[in-house]
Amino acid sequence: MVPKGKIFSGMRPTGRLHIGHLSVLQNWIRLQQDYDCVFSIVDWHALTTSFEDVQAMQTNIREIALDWLSAGLDPEISPISVQSQVKEHAELHLLFSMMTPVSWLERCPTYKDQLQQFGLKGKEINMYGFLGYPMLMTADILLYLADHVPVGQDQLPHIEISREVARRFNFLYQVELFPEPQAILSEVPLLPGIDGLKMSKSYGNDIALSASAAELKEKVRLMVTDPARVRKTDPGNPEVCIVHTYHKIYSTAEEVAEIEEGCRNATIGCVACKQALAAKLENMLGPIRERREALLAHPGRIDEILAEGSRQARQKAAVTMNLTREAMGVRGVLD
Question: What totals of helices (H) and strands (E) does the chain contain, helices first?
Fold first, then answer.
């Protein structure tokens, strides 16, 4: 089968993944059947906001690799690499920075928003590396000549910068080297934490992909329901219930309709509703947990997969970098 195109995507190793990430991974798994994909654990990107806290970096890299593989990403189809093990990412980032106006980076809405958000938390991230985050992302994408990138809505400004850089490079150096990547918008459901706030490990309100059966049941038991429904015989409002929010994502339309009616008519209690959800989530996470346990039984396998994936990524990257150096006049008689 001829691939539809080339895809690059990655995640920062900032901690364990939770079920809010699962829809992204499921999309990757579908895409790798039709596209020539490279997936990368982008550890340099993690440094742009956590440069002072690196003790857990190597642990987080292995954890995210475990989560990806447990979810079903196949390294036999698509390389799974570590960004810092493919030095061409840094070289292309440097070369692109020579020809990219600073104003392109400063106008990026994500840059301004995150500066403000981190500032409110008392954290200073107004660094050269953070300003250049979209440029490093551009290098990540174009290094593999990716013409498609699966992203969420908030990443569209970064993709537009990648397109502008590709156009500018091709025009300046009179080549047709880099494609203008197109976004593949991912339909990622907004999954709140068990308390209704944004799901985050730091809040303790997440459900980890690696959660045990017991941990899963306990997390569901702690989910916030309609505060006005004190007794089972009280009619409830499913629209203010976190359990109902999860059911709308993981249960069928018929099941959701039954749950809504039962809640409003007080014919189903919150405990039964939670038990039904826990069973749904266990059916989803159980196979992931089994694959994870099989990988943990052979810990060297993770290192092998990342080493081989990074090797394959370097091979792809070397071809692009040779052409880039030649176009920019930095590949000469000493090469």
Answer: 14, 5
